[in-house]
Design a protein that fits this description.
By secondary structure, this protein is an alpha/beta fold. The chain has five helices and 37 strands. The radius of gyration is 28 Å and the shape is flat.
Length: about 350
């Protein structure tokens, strides 16, 4: 591809040689002649000068004299991904048709142009929408509904009565619709509470590998439109994840908690049950959320608090050893003064 083709693809503006061409891409540090690369994070700006790439995708507000060919674009990282997809169509090859070793119940409804891999199982009364791809070893439970243009990777389990919207991507090892963790203890024994609800995943959601999304005790566990779930996330029964929220790896969300729109939970955040988190909240890594968050903003710590408050408290704690030394010195001086006063009185 040459710079003109790339600029049209990413809706970018060329600065430099419009005829510059590339055959592959690489990171800004590894790129060589004939490669395209991108600069999306300012901390990598020093590498811009040394990169050997023939074309560099840069932000629209990037102004720097250079002998390299630049393409100014709104989001260089995303634009780079689009170029790589165009250069490597082989990366988009998926199963075709229904494999002879797939098990599809006679009552299941399978749409047009659906692919089902070897040893996948589609149970009774399930419905699969047009252009959906189900890889080998996946399991779709009875009465489950899968939308159009869905991509389900190997060994995904979607149990009974669940509903998956359109253009959803689910990565390997994920389990949707497992029983919620519900028990009552009687006479020292834990007795299971039936989990009678289901899971609803709306359109344009992506779910990483080895994620567990439990079915509701009643009604539905819901992942709203456009939410992104990273690998190794636990979402308990009756949780609601708001539109366009991002849940990062190793987050655990307890039952009946509700996240608003555009919420970000960074890695290893823990959230107790039966609380609400407002729209546009960001919780920093390893944060512990134990009560409602009612105002948008950035939160951090255990338990979480507004990030500026938490940083001030942590800064104060760092000064604590010196403060203790001063206190001990002052106590010693006070005691010596007291001794002197006693001597004077006598």
């Amino acid at each position: 591809m040459d710079a003109r083709e790339i600029a049209r693809l990413v809706d970018g503006t060329i600065v430099g040689d419009e005829t510059a061409s590339i055959s592959d891409g690489a990171g800004i540090k590894e790129a060589d002649s004939g490669h395209i690369t991108f600069l999306a994070n300012t901390k990598y700006t020093p590498l811009f000068e040394s990169t050997k790439a023939s074309i560099v995708l840069v932000p629209e507000d990037f102004f720097r004299r250079s002998d390299k060919t630049l393409i100014l674009t709104k989001d260089p990282s995303y634009s780079f991904s689009r170029v790589m997809e165009a250069l490597h169509p082989e990366l988009q090859i998926h199963p075709q048709g229904v494999h002879a070793n797939a098990v599809v119940h006679e009552s299941a409804v399978v749409g047009d142009n659906v692919a089902i891999g070897a040893c996948a199982v589609i149970e009774a009364n399930a419905a699969i929408g047009n252009n959906t791809i189900i890889y080998a070893g996946a399991y779709i439970g009875h009465n489950t509904r899968i939308g159009k243009n869905v991509l389900i990777y190997p060994n995904v389990t979607i149990r009974e009565w669940c509903e998956i919207g359109d253009r959803v991507i689910i990565h390997s090892g994920t389990v949707i619709g497992a029983d919620g963790f519900g028990f009552v203890t009687e006479n020292g024994q834990h007795k299971k509470i039936p989990q009678l609800g289901s899971v609803l995943i709306e359109d344009d959601v992506e779910i990483g590998s080895n994620v567990s999304i439990d079915r509701a005790r009643f009604d539905k566990t819901i992942i709203r439109k456009g939410a992104m779930i990273d690998n190794l996330v636990q979402i308990a029964h009756n949780v609601i994840i708001g539109e366009n929220s991002i849940v990062v790896s190793q987050v655990g969300i307890s039952g009946s908690t509700e996240l608003g729109k555009n919420v970000v939970l960074a890695g290893k955040v823990g959230v107790v049950g039966h609380i609400k988190i407002a729209d546009n909240v960001v919780v920093g890594a390893k944060g512990g959320v134990r009560k409602d968050i009612t105002e948008p903003g950035q939160y951090w710590g255990v338990p979480v608090k507004p990030i500026r408050q938490d940083m001030k408290e942590k800064a104060a704690l760092q000064k604590l050893p010196d403060a203790l030394k001063k206190i001990r010195r002052l106590e010693k001086e006070i005691n010596e003064l007291k001794k002197g006063l006693v001597k004077d009185d006598t």
